[in-house]
Design a protein that fits this description.
The radius of gyration is 21 Å and the shape is globular. It is of the alpha/beta class. The relative contact order is 0.09. Helix 2 crosses helix 3, helix 3 packs antiparallel against helix 4 and helix 9 packs across helix 11. The chain is built from 13 helices and eight strands.
């Protein structure tokens, strides 16, 4: 009986969590179906929203849907470990709420909220949002999932700057509870409240932040990782000992070098290089000779099989 109560509560939450926001958001379009975009689409559909997932080709979309189905299969084994029929229904209902398309227009026409999760390139984002601004309903809210570019700079491509904010999710989206909600100096209070409410409705813990470089997490995390690299470059300690010290001394689940390998050394380099270009006089944002060398050699971390550590079997 207790198990059935838990199952019913989960199903009820998944179907009704967006009801409180129905006057603001019913349909959400996610543009970009990579790891972040597919994860955002999944948690949004699980919360009961209608989702359009948009990408440039069917191959990318098919891969994303398989990723979502695999993720749901894994998570429902825990949620419905005694009721496999409920798991099957939960997966089907969630997948049925996601419609894929290669046409931006079809995803934008009826969207209440559009979340961009494409490549971290300011021109690509400007081109996308400029088009969206022309074809989306006037009440549609725009949000970017960027982790390194200023939200206000991305918003320069649109006329509705009061309806533009940041929604910075963390990877893997279905597992990571945090959502940074970013407000520019032009984001309206109503838009910001709606973004916060959306975050809560999909089960995230939201934190509020102004449009500062890296927001909260990356602004603190990236300089910490680069300070660790400087210690290694100076010969103060080995990178293995630095990782061990931070895990056992500070209680971190990963050391800074393990974390950089996990995130991707190219991604880490991209973030710092971008900050250095925008804020050349800030000593916090300095590049690293070792990271530049590793990236040039194609040693990007876990995804390439080797970074600071070797992951090849």
């Amino acid at each position: 009986m207790a198990t059935n109560l838990v199952i019913n509560n989960i199903i009820k939450r998944s179907f009704s969590s967006s009801n409180a926001l129905s006057k603001h958001i019913n349909s959400v379009t996610v543009i970009g179906s990579g790891l972040m975009g597919s994860g955002i689409a999944q948690v949004t559909a699980e919360a009961g929203y209608s989702v359009y997932l948009v990408d440039q080709n069917d191959s990318a979309l098919n891969k994303a849907m398989k990723t979502i189905e695999t993720s749901l299969t894994r998570s429902t084994k825990k949620k419905f470990n005694q009721e496999p029929d409920h798991a099957v229904r939960y997966i089907k209902d969630t997948m049925d709420r996601i419609v894929t398309s290669t046409q931006v227009d079809s995803g934008a026409e009826k969207a209440d909220l559009i979340i961009e999760a494409i490549v971290e390139n300011i021109q690509a984002k400007h081109d996308l949002f400029s088009k969206l601004d022309k074809i989306s309903p006037n009440n549609t809210i725009f949000a970017s999932n960027t982790s390194s570019l200023p939200i206000s700079e991305i918003a320069q491509a649109v006329s509705r700057k009061d309806k533009f904010g940041g929604l910075h999710f963390f990877n893997p989206v279905p597992m990571m509870k945090l959502l940074e909600v970013i407000k520019t100096h032009e984001t309206s209070d109503a838009t910001f409240r709606t973004l916060l409410e959306y975050g809560l409705s999909i089960g995230k813990t939201t934190v509020e932040c102004k449009d500062t470089p890296g927001f909260i997490v990356n602004r603190l995390l990236v300089p910490y990782m680069f300070e660790a690299v400087k210690m290694f470059e100076r010969g103060d300690a080995s990178f293995q000992d630095i990782d061990t010290a931070m895990k056992l001394g500070a209680g971190y689940p990963m050391g800074p070098f393990e974390l950089m390998d996990y995130v991707g050394l190219d991604t880490t380099k991209f973030i710092v290089d971008g900050w250095k270009k925008r804020y050349p006089d800030d000593p916090t944002f300095q590049s690293s000779v070792i990271i530049d060398q590793l990236v040039a050699e194609g040693r990007l971390g876990r995804k390439s099989g080797e970074g600071f550590y070797n992951y090849k079997k």
